[in-house]
Amino acid sequence: MGLLSFAIWLPILSGIVLLGFGRDEQVGAVRWMALVAAFASLVVTLPLIGGFDATTAAMQFVEKFDWIERFNVHYHLGIDGLSMWFIPLTAFITLIVVISAWQVVKSRVNQYMGAFLILSGLMIGVFAALDGLLFYVFFEATLIPMYLIIGVWGGPRRVYAAFKFFLYTLAGSLLMLVALIYLYYISKGSFDILKWHNVPLTMNEQTLLFFAFFLAFAVKVPMWPVHTWLPDAHVEAPTGGSVVLAAIMLKLGCYGFLRFSLPITPDAAHHWAYFMIALSLIAVVYIGFVALVQQDMKKLVAYSSIAHMGFVTFGFFIFNELGMSGGIVQMVSHGFVSGAMFLCIGVLYDRVHSREIAAYGGVANTMPKFAAFAVLFAMANCGLPGTAGFVGEWMVILGAVKFNFWLGLIAATALIFGAAYTLWMVKRVYFGAIANDHVRDLADIDAREFVMLALLAAAVLFMGLYPKPFTDVMHVSVDGLLKHAAVSKIPSQ
């Protein structure tokens, strides 16, 4: 058992233990246990950062044991520069979610906290798995706690949203299972993902595998046009569910493209690159327009997430170092920024019980400390220089201009749309005269909410002002992936 196993199983086992504490008089103990477990889970991931060697593209912190020996299935874990930052990010966001729910969630508190801790471990498992079947188990298992989080603690249409989320993502993943089994047989009985990277495949095989992976990962991202489950899931999910969904779960799909589609089917990935670029730019431009007309704050930020994820997939498929590194940086920064945006909406909803933009106005007059945080996160969502939101988008645009000036120009419009819909919301919600009695009676954030938002603000500013630790870690791995994807895997005749 190494660090990665501790990072995976500590939150999962803690979550299972919490499920045994169900009585109302135990709520206080449950909250503290969840907080300690979430903090310990974050602490376990910190040595991964300190001990990571950024000068090599090889897998690090590797663990490998027999799991299902008869079928050559292994419990095989490891991380490289493509996956390293997502493990501490997942643990950090889980800690924030536990703090955010401290006084807000009053029913089934043990199950709520337990579901998030279990989900955290499963998502870390996805980022660390190097065995195809192990990856699939973790990837699909994440659906169960999120389905329950939306279905039990969500809004009035929570059952519909939970079913839609579950069916979309499950249906997309079934073809991936077929692809994994095919790769198992063609690699002569191995589920080793790294071995699959070097299996020779014909163009027809690569194309079929590429689209099998595409359906699984595109739904998860989500890419246009399979994005329709996300706004419903966000609107109905509780605040913590929206935070984890936007900050971490969407990245599972993007990560899948990096770990499977690009290295296993490089020829098909190059052949269909313009198809992927087209879908990504439609998400950037069209979804930007859709976000402009939203009246619900959660829906607006949900559509904003789809547009930002379009930036990520666009960066991956222009096949240069700036674009791909920018896409990964955007994944990490979006985890901080989108999580913070949904938490701010949750703070307002807890007080007014409305997500409608029209229900607010002049919030900065009655909640000045909260408004300062909210405006900072909104600026980061726009891509303001000096915040985390700027770095990844800037890198992707630079890479895109290097690839094709006109595609780079189209991608750059995302900054305009992002500023338009975000600032329009900020103006109507936070600035101007106090709009109604609900706003007039608002109380500013307490110490718990201040700590929660301050931690995210520190992350957003640190990454925006000093992105070097993030980019250095991924540079060698990205360079290695691009070199690997540049070599044809079609067997010579």
Side-by-side strand order of the widest sheet: 1-2
Distance between the first and last residues' Cα? 45 Å
Subunit arrangement of the protein? single chain
What portion of residues is helical?
over 70%
Taking the sheet with the most strands, its summary is: 2 strands, antiparallel
Shape, please?
A: globular
Number of beta strands: 2
Mean pLDDT: 86
List the total number of helices: 22
Class of secondary structure makeup? mainly alpha
CA-based gyration radius = 22 Å
The low-confidence runs, each spanning 5 or more residues with pLDDT under 50, are none
| % residues in beta strands | under 5%
Secondary-structure element series: HHEEHHHHHHHHHHHHHHHHHHHH
Write the layout of secondary structure elements.
Layout: H1 3-18, H2 27-50, E1 60-68, E2 73-79, H3 86-100, H4 109-128, H5 132-141, H6 143-153, H7 158-186, H8 193-196, H9 203-220, H10 229-236, H11 239-264, H12 266-271, H13 273-292, H14 297-316, H15 321-352, H16 363-366, H17 368-382, H18 388-403, H19 405-430, H20 437-440, H21 447-465, H22 468-486
Antiparallel strand pairs: 1-2
